[in-house]
Amino acid sequence: MANPTPLTPQGYLLARTDWHPLEIMFWLATLLPFLVFPNYLSLASQIAITALFALSLDIILGYAGVVSLGHAAFFGIGAYSAGLFSKFVWGEPFSGLLVAATLAGLFGYATSFIISRFRHLPLIMITLGLGLLAHEVANSAHWLTGGSDGFQGARTDPVFGLFRFDLYGKTAYAYSLGVLFIVFLCARRLIHSPFGLALRGIRENFNRMPAIGADSRAHIRKAYTIAAVIAGICGALLTQTTNSASLESISFQRSADVLVMLVLGGAGRLYGGLIGAAIFMIARDQFSGIAPQFWYFWIGVLLVAVVMFLPNGILGGLSAIVARWRRK
Amino acid sequence: MLPPIFGVLFDGIAYGMLLFVLSVGLSVTLGLMNFVNLAHCAFAMLGGYVTVTLVNIFGWPFLATLPISFIAAAVTSVVLERLLYRRLYRASDLDQVLLTIGLAFISVSVAAYIFGTIQQPIATPAALRGSIDFFGIGLGKYRLFLIAVALLVTLAMVIGLEYTRFGAQVRASVDNQRMARGLGIDVDWTFASTFALGSGLAGLGGSLAIEIVGLDPNFSFTYLVYVLIVVSVGGLGSIAGSFAAAMLIGISDIAGKYYVPELGAFLIYLVMVVVLMWKPAGLFGKR
């Protein structure tokens, strides 16, 4: 591409905020389940929630380079706080989302002071430890969370007082998709801002960023809190659309699954998490009927294959193919 | 007569010894190559299943299976190291985590496919059953045996690392890899053999663990957490550190379960997070 005028920083960032036709097609395609697969709307709603969760991990992992094995802690906090809010205060969904996001954000902000001090193995261990701690707290606080029996008594009022959560998941999918889209817009704006650029700088060189005036730790704290807020929203969405919450929502398994989805799709590219989540959830839905306990065998094989042959995930592999094709 | 706290302490020490045998290999390989191997407990599980198969199907005596489980885990780990691990020595932590979590997932499914998801029964020799009365406390014979084995392993490792040529090469490679290469030490070979030894010890630990904690396909993940806690609390590449951390975690876990059972595993996670916040490189870590 010819570029007659020198690119200013503002120009560079602005150029990236333009919507690509593929992106518009992607979001139009998310409406297809309403028309084509009306029996799979519950699954579609789960996919939308998981995709948002993967997006929140992408902000810290894909952009800031903070590997977390305990991200489900925030998901679980959101799930339980939305459930408790609807049980004891009122069932209006949007205020529930707000409460869950605030609580998860507060917890994320508090732990971000710990997270930002570490790199590499100690960081992985600390996030794992905090995630396990959160799981243990939820497990032992039986009087509050229901422990391993699951949380009972969540009830969600109709969205806007009009649309009830129905058996087919029509409202659930519309609601989850709407929240996903709005949060995605915010995340997209964030990633293409100077702040997002600074995060990528931290990922590439943690020690060099402070030298050009960007405090790495302060940036990681902010990014971590934002990711926690989004993860809290995902947890709340799951509770509201299914009217239940369980220990599974705060487990190590969920932290590991979301990492797998993000890496499968391609970390650090916004859509990676969304595509990874869709593929993962659809595959799990399809395979679970055949051989439930061997599903993880294929996940394992997939992980090994992705690390060995597709270092940037599916989207990274696709864009490499496109780039090669263009050069010819 | 001794108060019951000594009984708890004894169980805690035995459990700590088990954790030490399971985790010391990971500590050394992590310190040596900085390779985050989350599949370490998959090798331990392999050792456990080798013992179970030999005892229950082929009728071998329990003690004779222990060396076989060591060898099986060591050989498998070297094959994987040559095929997969070595390509990722210079890759990011994330890639290493993903590859090894993938291998751990595969190990869980394969174990479930071959052996089913039930707990595996094991018959230990009659000489290791029951307990010895020691001033009013029953000391389990198997636990005494476990402590003896772990102490032997520790002794062998200390002697091997401190007083042999191979040990000197390993220590040189841990301290400064580039310098070690410059002096003509074959660091790749050193690593492969250390990796095999460490995984072999994990396999031995897996066999020893069956009697204490049982064996099912989720072993790869259940004990991975404990092993990682021991390694990161103790400090990478430090045998003394792993030993101290294994004792600390073993005793606090057993004491926690005995005195405050409602806390569950909360206590050891808390110990880990606090120790890491205080000393990110672990109690005995250098970096």
What report would you give on this structure?
Chain A has a domain at about 40-250. Chain A has helices at about 10-15, 20-30, 30-35, 40-65, 70-90, 95-115, 120-140, 140-145, 170-190, 195-205, 215-240, 250-265, 270-290, 295-310, 315-325. Chain A has about 325 residues and is mainly alpha-helical. By secondary structure, chain B is mostly helical. Chain B has one domain. Chain B has eleven helices and two strands, in the order H-H-H-H-E-E-H-H-H-H-H-H-H. In chain B, strand 1 and strand 2 form a beta hairpin. The longest helix of chain B has 29 residues, at about 5-35. The N and C termini of chain B lie far apart (about 45 Å). In chain B, about 50% of the residues are buried. The model of chain B has no long low-confidence stretch (mean pLDDT about 85). The interface between A and B is large, with 42 and 45 residues.
How many domains is the backbone of chain B divided into? 1
Strand content of chain B: under 5%
Write down the secondary-structure element order of chain A. HHHHHHHHHHHHHHH
How many β strands of chain A by DSSP? 0
Taking all residues together, what is the mean pLDDT of chain B? Answer: 83
**So what's the overall shape of chain A?**
globular
Task: Describe the largest sheet of chain A.
Answer: none
